[in-house]
Amino acid sequence: MAQQTTKEQWRDPAHVQEFFTERAGDWDARFPDDGPAYDAAVADLGLRRGDAVLDAGCGTGRALPALRAAVGPRGVVLGADLTPAMLDAAVRAGRHHDGQLLLADVTTLPLRDGSVDAVFAAGLISHLADPVAGLQELARVVRPGGRLALFHPVGRAALAARHGRQVTPDDERAEPNLRPLLARGGWHLDSYTDEDTRFLVLASRADLPEPHAATRG
Fold first, then answer.
1. What is the value of pTM for the model shown?
2. Residue 72 phi, psi (nearest 5)
3. Residues 179, 189: contact at Cβ < 8 Å?
4. CA 83, CA 98: separation in Å to the nearest integer?
C-alpha cells in the first residue's frame, strides 16, 4: 500500500479494485507466512461439518482451504470478491476446488437472506464505503445466531507500521469504535483480539436494524 493512499481512497470501490488488480499476480508471494494465522482464525470461527460459509472479500482465496476443511465435503464454501484479477489468482492457485468463487461486491451479495451459517472477512472492514451498511448486508445473508470473523494476520499497530503510519483514535477497528459499529450492523461483539501477530474479532448475528430487515431477492 502506498503511503499516500488516504482512508477515503480505501473506501472507494474503484480505487480498491485498481489497487488489487495491480498486485494480484504476486499477492500470495508478498505474505508467504500467513497460512497458519488464517488456519487458526478459521478454527476460532467454530464452523461445523456441513455448514455454509462465505469468505467475504476473499482475494486470492487464502482462507478457502481451511474453510473447506472445517465444513467438510458436504458443506458449502463461497468466496466473493470485487476484483476479477484476485479471483483469477485464486483459480491459478487451485483454490476454486475448495469453494465457489463469486465476482461480487460484498455490499450487494447475490445470496438469499439467512443462506449461510457464518462469514469470514479478512481485511475487509477498512474497504467498506459504508461500514454499517456493509455489516448489515453480511448480517442479512447469515442465519439468526450465525457468526462473523473479522480477521487480519497482523494487529492494528503492526499493520499501521507496515504502511508507515500510526494508529489513530478514529480507526473503526479499535474496540470502542467497532463494538457500536457492529451493533448498528446487526452483530453482537463476542470477542476482540488485537495483537502484533493477530487481529480477530468474533461476533454473532443479532436482530437486524428495522430499516434493513426487509427480505431481498
1. 0.87
2. 75, 175
3. yes
4. 19
Cα 91-66-144 angle, rounded to 5 deg: 105
The radius of gyration of the chain's CA atoms, rounded to the nearest angstrom, is: 16
Q: Which three cell numbers stand for residue 139?
A: 448480517
pLDDT at 6: 59
Distances 119 to 7, 12, 80, 138, 146 between C-alpha atoms, Å: 24, 22, 11, 7, 8
User: Which cell numbers hold the place of 118?
Assistant: 457464518
Alpha carbon of residue 208 to chain centroid: 19
d(CA 17, CA 161): 23
Q: What is the DSSP letter of 6?
A: -
Longest dimension (CA), the chain: 45
pLDDT digits (tens, 9 = 90+) for 19-78: 888 888 888 888 888 899 999 999 999 999 999 999 999 999 999 999 999 999 999 999
pLDDT digits (tens, 9 = 90+) for 158-178: 887 777 777 888 888 999 999
Under 8 Å between Cβ of 150 and 201 = yes
Half-sphere exposure (Cβ direction) of 81: Cα atoms closer than 13 Å: 30
With the C-alpha atoms ordered 113, 118, 120, 126, is the resulting torsion angle positive or negative?
Answer: positive
For residues 111 and 163, give the distance between their C-alpha atoms in angstroms, rounded to a whole number: 35
Overall size of the chain counted in residues: 217
